[in-house]
Amino acid sequence: MKNILVIEDEPQIRANLQEILTLCNFNASTASNGLQGIEAVQTEIPDLILCDVNMPELDGHDVLRLLRTDSVTANVPFIFLTSNGDRPDVRSGMELGASDYLTKPVNPDELIKAINTQMAKQSILQRHSEEKLNQLRSNINLALPHELYTPLNGIIGSADLLIRENDDLDSPERLELAEQIRHSALRLYHLTRNFLLYAELEMMASANDRHEIIRQNRRAHIAIQYPLTNIAEQCAKKYHRSTDLRLEIEPAELAISEVKLIKLMDEVIDNAFKFSQVGQAVQIFARHVDDQHYQIDVMDMGRGMTPHQIASLGGYMQFDRDRYEQQGGGLGLTIAKRMMELHGGELVIHSIPEQETAITLSFTLSEVDLLASFTLLHGRYFMSVS
Prior knowledge:
Elements: E1 3-7, H1 11-23, E2 27-31, H2 34-43, E3 48-52, H3 60-69, E4 78-82, H4 87-96, E5 100-103, H5 108-164, H6 171-205, H7 210-217, E6 222-223, H8 225-238, E7 245-249, E8 253-254, H9 258-274, E9 282-288, E10 293-300, H10 307-311, H11 329-341, E11 346-352, E12 356-364, E13 374-377, E14 380-383
Parallel strand pairs: 1-2, 1-3, 3-4, 4-5, 7-9
Antiparallel strand pairs: 6-8, 9-10, 10-12, 11-12, 13-14
Helix pairs in contact: 2-3, 5-6, 6-11, 8-9, 9-11
């Protein structure tokens, strides 16, 4: 049974709409004003929202604006209810991202038809998500064998040499072969974990309860300064480039677990060192953009990326395999991008081929919540209460 939230300040209209929806086998809940509507959405994400335009304090446009700026609720179908069909109201609502509008008094048949139309559109989107998931499985099946064979060949070849040439090798040669085996094994381990994580993230992104997944991911909190510094210094040390690292970090608390933050930032920072040269600076700036947002910029002066490579991140591809021996360049950033999206954030890449790459990660601060902060709307501040 589909869940529909009705946000309407007129008690009789609200009751009538709830009755119509219940009779048509929808699970209908109600809110008597915009603030209560936002509270209800935060408690449970509905499948569709019916919302009056003209309400005191927080009107329908304000409600829609808040919902559309939150990645958790950005795609929930939203139908406006207007008392007069006023064109400016309708036009501004559609520009904000409303799915449809109905004029009050609402005709029951038109109401159900409009709802069913939006539900059908959601079903199409879900079908596209499933097709994308099937494409993901196909991509993994094609790419995984090659990725596994390369380090496996290194492991097997080095091991064979140790066995066949045991009597003819001196200690330094044996040590070198042992190091090659260890390096290949670690690469294989890292690749396998990344492929599994990639598949898991794509399935989560295509899930019906994606909004709830984002909400769950944002329940963990972490102070950013120490773990980010530690990750950056470890990556620099790994590539013997500690002198190339530049760090400026403002303290902040982010809505992400420590484990996921480490994985996310390790992929982004490792990519910067992997695809730049010794002596080229890798710069990391982490700062508050405003009271609600925190931004991490990771910049390098390495090989850069083409617009096509950046656009291809969502589907996993590797970049210039014949030219660069490093493997996994496409997958690591794809994982990082998806992790940001599943935490309600954003990863954006700006790059000039053969010159520079700047990766920007934008977070919503953990203490910021639609109902726990001042929200600036139409030049008015509302103090929300939870």
